[in-house]
Structures are given as C-alpha cells and as structure tokens.
Design goal:
Blueprint (H helix, E strand, L loop, with lengths): L7 H18 L17 E2 L6 E2 L7 E5 H6 L5 H5 L5 E5 L8 E5 L15 E5 L2 E2 L13 E8 L13 E7 L7 E9 L3 E11 L4 E12 L4 E2 L10 E13 L4 E14 L5 E8 L2 E4 L15 E2 L6 E16 L3 E17 L10 E21 L3 E22 L11 E25 L4 E27 L15 E12 L1 H4 L4 E18 L2 E12 L2 E2 L14 E2 L2 E14 L4 E21 L2 E20 L5 E19 L2 E5 L7 E13 L2 E12 L17 E12 L4 E8 L7 E7 H4 L1 E6 L4 E9 L1
Parallel strand pairs: 6-9, 13-18
Antiparallel strand pairs: 1-2, 3-8, 4-5, 6-7, 8-9, 10-11, 10-41, 11-12, 12-14, 14-15, 15-19, 16-17, 16-40, 19-20, 20-21, 21-22, 22-23, 23-24, 24-25, 24-26, 26-27, 27-30, 28-29, 30-31, 31-32, 32-33, 33-34, 33-35, 35-36, 36-37, 37-38, 38-41, 39-40
Length: 758
C-alpha cells in the first residue's frame, strides 16, 4: 500500500506539483467520487487464517487486486516499491530471471539460481525455493502480502527476513473475461488475458496468461553482436476449482512460463587495490577502456539468458464445524541458463555460462481451529529438492591459439545438490481479555543436504559458442587438453563435509493490546532459522574444503509496533521499531566473479513508518520511511578483519505516492505521482569502496480513465520520469582483470495500456 519517495525535498516538490495539477484539471467537480483506494480494508493470511491486516501484530504491507490495478502495480518490483524497507533486484534486468528480495536490509546478493534466500517467497502457500522462480506467477493476482521480520513458526526455514506471499485469483462463480494490451517506448509490448468459466455449480475453471517484452535498452557497439538488455517474458496458468461437498473444496493449478533474451549487460569500470580496500582507478591493468555510458557497451562475447518454469499445485480444504483442514501439494521444475561477457569489454578475456536444473516438491498439512477464548494452528511440512548444474568460466580465450578464440583457459564447476526438510509446528493465540491477546508458537525442523562439486581449470577447446538455449550447450562441448588445477569437493575427498544434518527450533512469543477497534499495539520476540548450505558456482580455486559448507543462521528479533486508524483524519498510521541479533549470519562476499558465504555474528537495528491519508474525497496520499543501522562482526577483506555493514542495507529509505481521482459524466479520471528514495549502501559485507552503490531516487507518473461501468480503462504512464541512471549492482574483479562490473537500472520508458472487462 505504500510507494517510495525521492529525497524528502524531492517528495515535497512532487506532492506540491501533483496538487497543482489536480487543482488545475478538476476545478468545481461535483460528481460523486469513489471510495479511497489506500484505506481499503485488506484481509490477509499472515498467520495462516483470514484476518484484517490492522488486527495482526506483524508489520505487513498488503495490497488487493483492486489496489494493485488502481496504483498501476504490474510486477513484483512494483509491489515492493510500495512498501518501506523493501527492495527487489532483478539481476540481468529481465522479468522472470533471478530476483533477489530484501526486507529491512535482510536478503542475499547470491546469483546462483538454486540458492535459498533469507526472504521466502510463496505463491498460493507454495514455497518457491529458487530466486529464478519468483516472477512467473505474478499476474492475475488477488492480493500480495509482504510480511516483515522472521516468520520461522508458520513459514519455516529461510524466512529470517520475512516473506512475500502472492495469491493468484481463483476461479469464481460468475462468467468473466478480460483482455489488456499495451505498448510503449523501446519496443515495449504487453498483453494479459483472463477467462473465468463456471462449468457447473460444483466446477469452476479459470485461464490466464501474460506476455511482456521490450527491445534492448543498451547498445552493443562490438561488430556483429546484438544489442543487450532486451527482455521477453510469457506465462500461462490454468486452474480448476471443484466443490466436492459443502465442506470439501479442491483446487488444481498448472502453470508454465519462459523468460529469455539478450539480457545480461554489465558495464566496466577500472578499479585498483588500496591497502585492503578496492577503489576506482583511472586505468586498469588489462588496458581495457571503461564503458562510460550505461546505455552503451562493447561486448565481444554472446549475452543471452533463458529461464523456464513449470509449476503444479493441488490444494484440498475441508472446512468442518470444529476445525479447518488444509493440504497443499506443490511441484516446480526450473531450468536456468546464462551466457555472459563477464569482463564487459571488447577484449576476449572472460565469459560466464551457468546452467542449472532444479526440481522441488513440498507438502503441507495444516489444521486451524478456535475455542471460546483462543485460536490455534498446527501442521506438518515436507520438502524435497534435487538440483544439478554447471558453471563454465572461460578466461583469456585465444591464449593457446590466437587464431581460434574458442581455445583458452576454462574453469568448469559441476555440482549436485539434494535437500530434504521436515517440520512440525503449532501456534496458539490466547485471548486474556477483549483487549489483550498472548501468542506462542514453536516449530521443529530437520534439514539434510548432500552436495558435491568438482571444479577444474584447464587449457581446453570449446566446440561451439553459437548456442542460444540450454539444450545447445553443455560441458560436453568442452575438450580439456591440459589440466592446470582441480578442486574436488566430493564424499570421497571431503567425507562428511559434503553433508548437513541440522535440527532447529524456531518460535514466537507476542502480546497484542487492542484498547479499541481503531488501535493495536504489539510487542514480539521471534526466532528465525535459515538453513545452512554450500558455496558453489564460481568458488575461488584453492578454497579449503572446510570452507565449502556454511552453518545455519539463527536470528532473534525483538519488535515493538503500533497500527492506528485515525478516523478523524481519515488516516492509517503504522509504526515499528526492531532489533535483530544474529548468530552465524550468512554474510556474502563477491570477489573476482566468484561468490562466497561465511558465518559471522551480526546485529541490525531499525524503524519504519507508514502513513495512509484520504484528506478529501478522491485524494489518496501515502508516505513511508525506514532507517537501518547494521554491524557484521569480524569480516575479512584483503588482509584486514574488521566489523562492517551488511550488504544491501541502506541507512535510509523514503517513499511517497499521491493520487487524485474525480468523476466525469462518462466515468472516472485519476492522476498519480509516486516516487522512492533509497540511500547509499554496500553491495556485500566486504564493504569495498568501489562496490558501494550510490543513493538513488525514482519518480513515476500515470493518468487513467475508467468508464462509468468500470469495463474499460485507458492508462498513460511514465516510469523513471526524469531518466535517472544509476548502478544497481557492482562486482569487483581486480585480481583477475583490474576492473569492476556494474549493472544499471532501466532508462525512462513511457506507454499506453488499454483494458476491457467483458
């Protein structure tokens, strides 16, 4: 429900400008106006049962489908932009590829598609284990919930930062159909369609699909190679809902999607070492000129990415008199492939080819019930994941044979990963009185993982580099000619280091005080667990075998919060302060195209504020902000060990949105201006100066016409209104190339979208 603002001075200017526009366009309007968009009541399931968001003692940003459509939220990134202290980052800038999620500075910059994140993502209560599988379901939504803080009791492992819950629109009782199409600058094409078919009183069907594409944002000046940062995304969903009896309902869902295109597009900047730090330089050791423009690069190697996902869900709900039983069975098959010019230059130095195939199945059984003065939830959970993949890093191609660019040094990593997780959990809310509720919950989990990886570096000859899909390129294309070095992290070589078997307990203790219907105050303690794992992908050669595994992280979080409905001001105020105490925080460091997790203790302190206003009919205002202070203990950098800050944890963020809607004789017209400001932050826990990401601010605008019967809408929109370009990712590769890579945000885009409800 919240949009992010620019710096405070910028948001003030933006709001003033918007009020001026509104006053100019709508003098003396007397037609009846629709209710407020941002103050609409939202029912959430953050505690695995339906509740008004204002009655839940958890910091939640939640949006209904009506709100998302009114506020022009068409992607997961748009949703996150409406919540303070929440960030999403699409690596490679394409929808449907790797998406990293951050809540209150907690997240991971890990680029491996099979890796698990500390912010969990769920679609229709099904856990999406891979960062590459998050985007595919984000269309035809019924609501979105962003739940902040560790949610280890009800959501389990890997929710130390919180959880994104996405709920798709289920089949309904009435026939409906919807089509939407849009076009814009840079070859933007968008389309979405929905069809709801009530076959009978017992059987309802729903079909929906989405297509989203744009041309390349970045010119590639290297002769013969395509421009980059294009994107193609498509997904289709089919659902059947069957009312077997008055108490028993069955939902079956199948979904398939694909994202592809010439998407990777890093730029290059010279860097150098300065003691233990890495800073920007005027020239690099390889003699490669830095690309000075975010809109122009010179890549000699191919840039292509492809991601496919097939997802299936079966949900059974039996709603009896004494309790409700829910069974959720889910399966996802995900294949992921990238080829990238990782030196980001016209010199044939480095290219990067990760490939992975991940499948996972999960089963949850859950019981919900209530007594005279208590509510309770209990359940069991099981997850099984199988993953395998390879990463090929080609270095100094042409070194062995200058006449053949496919002969050079190749570092090949091949891995297998098997994961099994089991858990039982329970939570009870005991109502001591009409105003005071005590909550207690526990979850016991057992996680087992088996991982093996073999990494070799060889002079080799590659058969073909003109591939454009997963099936066209495997490590079989590579013929080693001379082995240089090898790392073998296998059971035969590393023994029990290749296995993890962890038992853990997470839980919740909380008190809620509701002195009246318009106010809620809460104090909570929550323990969250993120499962241990293994460093994989481009692990630095020579890494000791004992450094491949990293331990589970344990977070103890303390929070005070309030949710206040200020009816006399037509406002809603949400506020929270929090303290996170980490044991074995899984800190990420990125060096020389490689990534590395290590365990350090850490603390995080912060606060956030959200304000929703409807001061006059038709006028909605949203303001939000967050502050963070972080410290990670004993982080090595170069030869120095010191306390440093978390990666991707800005000290300050702010957001603002203003929307005005008024009635016309033939419908409704709205104008909206929204913005966000995100402060400077480090890329990872190493805190290299050259890897620091600068502060940024973004401004978006749209105006929308909706017909009187709400069947037709036409929207004119602009994103990144003032065309700000800034790096969203930086990786230093000084030891290898004397340079660093950086990836930039999208440029200004504008377009028109038209929708029709049949």
């Amino acid at each position: 429900m919240i949009m992010h603002s620019k710096k405070l001075s910028y948001s003030q200017v933006s709001v003033s400008a918007m009020v001026f526009v509104v006053a100019t366009l709508a003098p003396g309007v007397s037609y009846a106006q629709r209710a407020s968009t941002v103050l609409e009541e939202v029912v959430v399931t953050a505690q695995k049962r339906e509740e008004n968001a204002n009655d839940v003692g958890i910091a939640i940003s939640a949006y209904t489908n009506d709100q998302m459509e009114a506020l022009n939220m068409v992607s997961g990134s748009d949703v996150a932009a409406q919540a303070p202290a929440v960030e999403t980052r699409r690596n490679y800038a394409g929808r449907g590829l790797v998406t990293n999620l951050f809540i209150r500075g907690v997240g991971s910059t890990d680029l491996n598609s099979g890796s698990e994140q500390p912010v969990a993502a769920f679609v229709d209560d099904f856990y999406i284990i891979s960062t590459a599988g998050v985007d595919f379901a984000l269309f035809d939504m019924s609501r979105v919930e962003i739940i902040k803080g560790p949610q280890g009791t009800l959501f389990g492992r890997n929710a130390t930062g919180g959880a994104f819950q996405y709920f798709t629109q289920e089949p309904e009782d009435e026939f409906s159909a919807y089509v939407e199409t849009g076009a814009g600058t840079d070859g933007i094409l968008q389309a979405e369609t929905r069809l709801n078919l009530p076959v009978s009183e017992k059987l309802k069907l729903r079909f929906s699909g989405v297509y989203d594409s744009h041309d390349a944002f970045t010119e590639n000046s290297f002769a013969g190679n395509d421009d980059i940062h294009e994107s193609n995304f498509k997904s289709f969903r089919a659902q059947a809902k069957y009312y077997a009896t008055d108490e028993w309902t069955v939902l079956l869902k199948a979904e398939t999607g694909k994202a592809y295109g010439n998407i990777p597009g890093d730029n290059l900047k010279p860097m150098k070492k300065d003691g233990d730090d890495v800073v920007f330089a005027e020239a690099n050791g390889a003699g490669v000129l830095a690309n000075s423009s975010p809109s122009r690069v010179s890549h000699d190697s191919l840039d292509y990415a492809e991601n496919k996902a097939d997802t299936y869900l079966l949900r059974n709900v039996w709603d009896g008199d004494a309790f409700t039983f829910t069974s959720i069975s889910g399966y996802q098959d995900l294949s992921y492939f990238i080829t990238e010019d990782c030196d980001a230059s016209p010199v044939n130095i480095c290219s990067f080819h990760p490939i992975s195939d991940t499948t996972h199945f999960s089963q949850e059984f859950r019981l919900n019930g209530a007594g005279d003065n208590f509510d309770w939830t209990a359940g069991a959970y099981y997850l099984k994941q199988d993953a395998d993949g390879s990463t090929v890093l080609s270095i100094l191609n042409g070194l062995a044979d200058p006449n053949d660019p496919n002969v050079g040094i190749y570092q090949i990593s091949q891995y297998t990963l098997d994961v099994e997780s089991k858990a039982i959990f329970g939570q009870i809310d005991y109502h001591l009185s009409e105003s005071i509720t005590l909550t207690a919950g526990l979850r016991y989990s057992n996680d087992t993982k088996e991982f093996e990886e073999v990494t070799t570096q060889s002079f080799a000859d590659i058969d073909d580099l003109s591939f454009d899909s997963v099936s066209d390129f495997t490590t079989a294309n590579i013929t080693p000619t001379q082995l240089l070095v090898s790392n073998e992290f296998t059971a035969a070589n590393a023994g029990d280091l290749t296995k993890i078997d962890d038992d853990s307990i997470s839980g919740t203790l909380q008190v809620n005080w509701q002195p009246d219907d318009a106010s809620l105050y809460y104090a909570s303690f929550r323990r969250g667990i993120k499962a241990g794992g293994f460093n994989n992908g481009v692990v630095p050669l020579g890494t000791p075998l004992e450094d491949y595994p990293y331990a589970e992280e344990v977070l103890d979080a303390y929070e005070l919060g309030a949710k206040l409905q200020l009816e006399e001001y037509s406002a809603q105020l949400n506020a929270a302060v929090f303290y996170y105490d980490y044991a074995d925080y899984q800190s990420t460091r990125v060096d020389n195209v490689g990534q590395f997790f290590a365990n350090q203790d850490a603390v995080l302190t912060g606060g956030e504020l959200e304000l929703f206003l409807n001061p006059v009919s038709g006028l909605d205002i949203v303001i939000g902000s967050s502050v963070l202070d972080t410290n990670v203990e004993d982080v090595p950098r170069g030869g120095v060990v010191a306390d440093r800050e978390m990666g991707e944890a800005p000290h300050f963020t702010a957001n603002a949105l203003i929307r005005y809607e008024w009635s016309l004789p033939v419908g409704y017209l709205s104008v909206q201006l929204d913005g966000r400001y995100v402060g400077a932050r480090h890329s990872d826990a190493a805190n290299y100066t050259a890897n620091e990401l600068p502060s940024y601010s973004l401004l978006n605008a749209n105006t929308t016409y909706t017909s009187q019967d709400e069947k037709v809408f036409v929207r004119l929109w602009v994103k990144n209104l003032v065309d700000k370009r800034f790096p969203v990712q930086r990786i230093q590769v000084v030891d290898l190339l004397g340079t660093g890579q950086e990836n930039f945000n999208d440029p200004r885009t504008a377009g028109i979208t038209v929708g029709y409800n049949f």
